[in-house]
Amino acid sequence: MTLATENQLTAGSNGFDPDLLDRMIGAKGYGQDIESRSQPLLAALGPLLSAAFHTATGISLDARPGAIRQGRRRDLLEELSGDTVYCEASIANWSRDISSLCGTKLIIGMVECLLGGSDPDQLDIAARPLSGIELDMSLVVFEQLNDSLRGLVSAKPDTKASARNPQLDYPDEEDDPIANFHAVALTLDIEFGAVTAPLTLILPQAILLKTKLNPTRLDKKADGAGGDWSERLSDRVSKSQISLQASVALQPMALGEISRLQSGDLIAFAHNGDIQVTLSANGQPLYTCALGRAGSRYMVKIEGQAGPDENWKTDFK
Questions:
Q1: Is this structure's pTM higher than 0.85?
Q2: Same-domain status, 231 and 270
């Protein structure tokens, strides 16, 4: 048993205020002190993050200091987790207990722009759970956030920092690998075109109280050495499993005839001879094919391109 634990048990039996005890052992700070330490961290983190995103993806966003909240870590997660994706991260020799939440609208909008070439100013995004591709690519957001934070809290540029695979929700209490410590939630309000979404860091107050910001990184932009997001996104799309549909044109019929169709009726193909098939995915026509057979299975043979251009992969979201 540690000295801090022994002190806590003794204090509890003597009727000490638990919050006062936590302040005495450095696990919790006074509200005003936490606020004063959080404000310069948020003010410096925003420009670093904006520059890192622009370098990695070629897109511009504005990251402004937002709300600062204090409380137990799981209480803050419950309060802030609506329409967000969750990620755990660590920075060597600083903290292994970093949690982050990012509004899903930001991820959806960025992936839509990078895949489909949409104008950020014309985005109309509704918050929803992320798709598989979006969840995978949200890791880049958390990596950029964690790397920007590392530059502020570590004097060594090669300090190891890592972010784990993002999750659609934070873990239940019994499965949570991170303790329910006194925490501070630092929110950046992210503006990306027409989309506004929160990006929140949840840190132990004990760590924040001991942290001195790296003066060489204040008022400077990030190096942005985080890899090319668009390249990683393209690679992720190329490896995705996509369901294919093959459609065959049938002879045209009058609406009245169609309304009288019954089980057992036969409808002829539209073409004589070779049957023309259009191969599609996600509602997007990809190739024209010929219908054939191999053993007991019908097959299609690719004959040509059916899509409007050779960049059809950008239409998959």
A1: no
A2: no
Does residue 283 sit in the same domain as residue 219?
Answer: no
DSSP string, 210-238: H----TTTTT------S--HHHHHHHHHH
Q: Point out which residues pair with 85 in neighbouring strands.
A: 102
Spatial distance between the Cα atoms of 186 and 164, rounded to a whole number of angstroms:
19
What pLDDT, in 10s, does the model give residues 171-203?
Answer: 999 999 999 999 999 999 999 999 999 999 999
Is the residue at 150 inside a domain?
A: yes
Please give the structure tokens belonging to residue 200.
Answer: 């929140």
Q: Which residues contact 59 (CB under 8 A, 6 or more apart)?
A: 53, 110, 113, 114, 120, 192
Q: In DSSP terms, which residues pair with 88 in a beta bridge?
A: 99
d(CA 253, CA 189): 57
Between CA 250 and CA 230 the distance in angstroms is: 41
Residue 136 inside a domain? The answer is yes
* HSE-up of residue 45 (Cα within 13 Å, Cβ side): 26
Nearest to 161 by CA among 109, 227, 91, 226: 91
The residues, any chain, with a CB within 8 Å of residue 289's CB and separated by 6 or more, are: 246, 276, 277, 278, 279, 300, 301, 302, 303
Contact 216/91 with Cβ under 8 angstroms? no
